[in-house]
Amino acid sequence: MKRTAWHDHDWLLIHTAPQSPTLHMALDEVLTREVGAGRRPPTLRIWEWASPAVVIGRFQSLRNEVDMDAAQRHGIEVVRRISGGGAMFIEPGNTITYSIYAPLSLIKDLSFQQAYAFMDAWVIEALGELGIKAWYQPLNDITSEGGKIAGAAQAHRGGAVLHHVTMAYDIDAAKMLEVLRIGREKLSDKGTTSAAKRVDPLRSQTGLPREAVIERMVATFRRLHGLGDGALRMDELTQAGTLAQSRFGSREWTADVA
Amino acid sequence: MHGEYKMPGGKLVVIDLTVREGRLADVQLSGDFFLEPDSALEAINRALEGQPALAGEAALATAIKQGLPPDVMMYGLSPEAIAVAVHRALQAGHAA
After folding, report:
1. Dist. CA B75–CA A110, nearest whole Å
2. pLDDT in tens, A42-61
3. A227 FRET partner, CA 20 to 30 A, in A41, A95, A184, B48?
4. DSSP class of residue A247?
């Protein structure tokens, strides 16, 4: 396998109507596999959330990370994703989440640390164009003078790499702390103080609506790497729908690390 | 018993376990690290299961390495860091 460059691939964009948390988990699995098998071109997918969720990392303990009573009280679904990393607190509109599905050749011979920074170099550039001086903070964070902006996670599956990122646009910190069991140390890591009511690095530093930030990010990706408009295939959506029910919606998977 | 260790330059490594007849039991590794393939998590739990509770960190790290699949990849995690978390869990248990 030879190392490939961004421009060796014909990138496609998927940005659909809001979808359920379990379907998002399943789409990451299905699309990574499809790109790995060569049945789908490398793809950038922008997520839109139909409902609130806590998304825990593949290896996180459900009971150590989530206050299930608080999650239920707020009507927040708890799901587990296929990549490692930390928990995310999602309410529609409070974050910007995207996935990149690429052949492993794109990051061949890179260390993990290099691969994370490499996959998000376009975002650092996009943030710069939006007036935010941002940089990669190993192992897997994008940060700025105004604090942490995003966390990334990668997973390898059958010849492809999934690289997905959640960026804080405007998060209700009080509600997040009710639902996630985050220690004080972790909170300071997220670039906020215990007194902060909101974690809003993207909103406060750009002054732009979330949709406008996404538009600018997509434009930067398109300019740097090339990007055509794509859509989910019906068979991909069917597979993902089945997986969302049978696996990602199951207690067995969510509590796999109890 | 519960032990946590933030690996320097790495991620949070968490161990939950009990001790039965002087040996580690019901060992559960968790945390916000990265591990490929994901089945390696169970391999690590199995490698620690039954180890003497008095084993040193070096011996625990060796047991973990021997239990890992050959193609394993760790990011923000190491056998040594897991061994530290095990020891912290055992110490917390003694204190309780």
Report:
1. 13
2. 999 999 999 999 999 999 99
3. A95
4. I
Quote the percentage of chain A above a pLDDT of 70: 95
Residue A247, C-beta contacts closer than 8 angstroms, at least 6 positions apart = A26, A253
Q: Which residues pair with A142 in a beta bridge?
A: A136, A150
At residue A189, what is the residue type? D
Q: How many CB atoms lie within 10 A of CB A170?
A: 16
**Can you tell me whether residue B26 is helix, strand or coil?**
strand
Helices A234-243, A21-36: crossing angle, 10 deg rounding: 130
Question: Is residue A196 scored above 80 in pLDDT?
Answer: no
* For residue A205, pLDDT beyond 90: yes
Complex ipTM over 0.85 = yes
Shortest Cα distance, chain B CAs vs residue A162, angstroms: 12
> How far apart (Å, rounded) are the C-alpha atoms in residues A78 and A126?
31
**Under a CB-based contact definition with an 8 Å cutoff, are residues A162 and A85 in contact?**
no
B41–A139 C-beta distance less than 8 A: no
